[in-house]
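ok so I'm stuck.
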Amino acid sequence: MFVYYTSGTCSRQIIFEVDENDNLHRVKFIGGCSGNLQGVGRLVEGKNIDEVEKLLAGIKCKNNTSCPDQLSKAIAAYKKSLQENK
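replied:
not stuck anymore, here's the structure
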């Protein structure tokens, strides 16, 4: 399980898992617009992290970011943590 603390959005945290094939699972946002974020979580379930990161990066809402954009940043942070732990 990877935990990412968001910045500039109503959601405060994003929690997710990545399987051995680099697919996202159990994406959960803490805080924010519950219905919309449950929808985002379901839409990205089982999708490749590189695909999701590219698709959601740069979506804007308040503060020049959004919850989907923050998920793309969370994926980037996850990938960086893997590199650092090698």
